[in-house]
Amino acid sequence: MAVTSKNLHSTRRAQAYSPTRPRRLNAVAYAITLVLAVLAVYVVVGLAMGKLHVIVDDLRYGRPRTTQLNGFVGHDEAAGQPTHLMAINLNRQVVIVELPGGDPAKTRSIAGPYLFGADEDLTPVVLSLYDADRDGQVDLLLDVRRELLVYLNKDGVFRLPTAAEEAQLNHGSP
User: Fold this and answer.
1) DSSP letter assigned to residue 45
2) Are the CB atoms for 141 and 149 separated by under 8 Å?
3) 3-class secondary structure for 64-131?
4) How is residue 136 annotated by DSSP?
5) Degrees (nearest 5) of the Cα angle 173, 77, 137?
6) Which pTM does this prediction carry?
7) Chain segment 59-93, per-residue pLDDT in tens
8) What's the rounded Cα separation, in Å, for the pair 153 and 112?
9) Cα distance between residue 94 and residue 116, in whole Å
10) CA–CA distance, 27 with 15 (Å, rounded to integer)
11) Which of 26, 65, 102, 163 could form a disulfide with 89 if both were Cys (CB 3.0 to 4.6 A apart)?
12) Max alpha carbon distance in the chain (Å)?
């Protein structure tokens, strides 16, 4: 059997066309499209959840982020009124305002930490009262992004602990 140029040309064309090649290309294209679609959905859902979180915090803490607390802490509460405490995230600077015995004439302010990072002006600051040093007087706890700061209740005011007091707090010994 003699090979002619016509037969050689049709043989090459038959070898070049393979029924599995287009299927493989289609499968790769579908996989790439699926990965891109999943990535797009992930980004959109992430953005939506972030916006929803900000909206919930707006409803709960307002703008600027503010929390308040009433409690008997032993500061000028002779009239039977509890001390009113407010924590405000004012342009990334945490400010704690204390109204001893609920009396605005005796207002004190405590400068809290400065918050660094993007959108930290939207970070809520949560107050609580707890006797951290176990001395019988409740101390002020400030929770910022699950980081706890303790202001000890000493001599009728809240203040940050000294190095020795900090060591006692960390070791749990009174």
Assistant:
1) H
2) yes
3) CEEEEEEECCCCCCCCCCCEEEEEEEECCEEEEEEEHHHCHHHCEEEEEEECCCCCHHHCCEEEEEEC
4) S
5) 5
6) 0.73
7) 999 999 999 999 999 998 888 899 999 999 999 99
8) 15
9) 11
10) 22
11) 65
12) 119
